[in-house]
Specification:
The complex is a heterodimer of chains A (90) and B (347).
Chain A: H1 3-9, H2 16-33, H3 68-72, E1 78-79, E2 82-83
Antiparallel strand pairs in A: 1-2
Chain B: E1 3-8, H1 35-42, E2 45-51, H2 70-76, E3 82-86, H3 91-98, E4 102-105, E5 126-130, H4 133-143, E6 169-173, E7 186-190, H5 198-213, H6 231-243, H7 246-258, H8 261-281, E8 289-293, H9 300-313, E9 317-322, E10 325-331, H10 336-346
Parallel strand pairs in B: 1-2, 1-3, 6-7, 6-8
Antiparallel strand pairs in B: 3-5, 4-5, 4-9, 8-10, 9-10
The chains are: A mainly alpha (90), B alpha/beta (347).
């Protein structure tokens, strides 16, 4: 298991104890996944969702839902009506 | 209709804080009401407050805490008549039946999820903790029905639930349960094909979906932001490492794994194919409902197999105490009437 690689993909930095616990638990889970290979799925389509969903398209309609102020009020930091982020380009 | 309704803290109530049991949403205030909150209030129910929950609905599958869920306690102690929750993994169905309550998980796609914070999108489904199923279904009839704000719903505008059938055929997986149901029902021995992989399929799909759903929590737009960081990547990593707990981290890491190049086909895609086989295997032809126990092991991961079919196949299920044990009944899509009918007999 490449725990640090996969943790990095989802932007987690793990402590030593977290890594040890996740290694132990993921080993148990992955061992249990081995049974899947016994199931014959040749010719079976993957099921993403149980509903038979189709795109329902409509014309765009202008509506006032949530104000910019309301949305920004939940931001950890904001400045001048925008989300504030650290410098992203050196 | 009237009654006090507690909301699990993943359901938005306008201007109230919402945490989904996570530090990552620290400080977040709901900008809207969930559709079901509006419908409850329009129907005369009162919101009692929020109940604590497992972070993003994910329990530990390795260490079952003995603590009763907040929503179950609130209803069993009479502090609210109902509690609404998103019981993906079965913990509410199990604990409700163990604590003198009932739980209704309706058919997937019949109750709006607008204003429900996503955990596992293809299985998220708001359900009801109640003292008896007739009251629970009465409440459900007020909140169920199509909502244009939830794109994954059936088209019916309304649902009414009533016990309809007297002579119910109960499928009993012979290796799993012995509830003495033969006294009241025509029972049929059934074998649940693919039962041995129910929990694996569910866990793989849940991890993949949860991992994607929580990618939006980055410390920029809302919720928690780590106080000290150097640059944008460090902000993301520190915020998420400090903001999420152990069970969610494990699930998200497993999700990244099963979606990665080498694992996608043998695990994620394979699980989605088996999901179809599982749904097609639950035919409800010579039985009307399936009776399952709420516990078969002290190991929570093994118990997940009991709650996987409803989640994977989008089926309605209920749980309640019966003959000193917790029983779970599962019916075909939109056949909640059969579950109510069976409960009427059992009670």
């Amino acid at each position: 298991m490449q725990i640090d690689k996969f943790a990095g993909m989802v932007k987690f930095s793990l402590s030593e104890s977290e890594r040890a616990t996740i290694e132990d638990q993921s080993r148990v889970l992955v061992d249990s996944f081995g049974l899947l290979k016994n199931i014959d799925t040749d010719g079976v389509d993957a099921m993403f969702t149980v509903l038979d969903i189709k795109n329902v398209l409509r014309e765009d309609v202008v509506a006032k839902n949530i104000s910019k102020e309301t949305l920004l009020s939940n931001a950890p930091e904001q400045y001048g009506g925008y989300f504030q982020v650290p410098k992203t380009v050196d | 209709m009237s009654g006090l309704v507690a909301l699990e803290d993943c359901i938005m109530q306008k201007d109230m804080p919402i945490t989904v049991g996570s530090k990552i949403l620290d400080g977040f205030v709901s900008p809207v009401n969930a559709t079901i909150v509006n419908r409850l209030m329009d129907s005369g129910y009162e919101i009692a407050g929020k109940t604590a929950m497992d972070e993003f609905c994910v329990p530990s599958f390795f260490d079952e805490s003995g603590e009763a869920l907040d929503a179950i306690q609130v209803v069993s102690e009479g502090r609210a008549q109902y509690a609404l929750s998103n019981d993906v993994f079965g913990k509410y169905r199990k604990q409700a039946a163990e604590n003198g309550c009932c739980y209704i998980r309706p058919t997937y796609g019949t109750v709006s999820r607008f204003g429900l914070v996503q955990s596992v999108s293809s299985m998220d489904q708001i359900g009801v903790v109640c003292k008896n199923l007739s009251d629970g279904f009465a409440l459900l009839s007020k909140i169920a029905g199509r909502d244009s704000k939830d794109g994954a719903m059936f088209s019916e505008e309304n649902y009414s639930y009533a016990a309809s059938v007297k002579d119910i055929r109960v499928g009993v997986p012979k290796s799993l349960s012995d509830f003495g149901l033969a006294e009241n029902f025509r029972t049929v021995d059934i074998e649940l094909e693919y039962f041995d992989v129910y929990r694996q399929v569910m866990y793989i799909l849940c991890c993949a979906e949860l991992g994607n759903n929580i990618s939006r929590y980055d410390g920029i737009k809302f919720g928690y932001r780590a106080p000290d960081f150097r640059g944008i990547n460090d902000l993301y990593t520190k915020t998420r490492s400090e903001g999420f707990g152990a069970n969610v981290k494990l699930a998200a890491i497993m999700g990244a794994m099963v979606l990665s190049q080498d694992w996608y086909t043998p695990y994620y895609e394979k699980a989605m194919k088996i999901r179809r086989l599982i749904k097609e295997s639950l035919r409800f032809d010579d039985y009307d409902v399936i009776a399952m126990p709420c516990q078969i092991s002290e190991n929570p991961y093994e118990n997940l197999s009991l709650f996987a079919p409803a989640a994977l196949a989008g089926l309605p299920s209920v749980s309640f105490p019966h003959n000193g044990k917790g029983i779970q009944l599962i019916a075909n899509v939109k056949r909640e009437d059969l579950l109510l009918s069976a409960w009427e007999v059992c009670k």
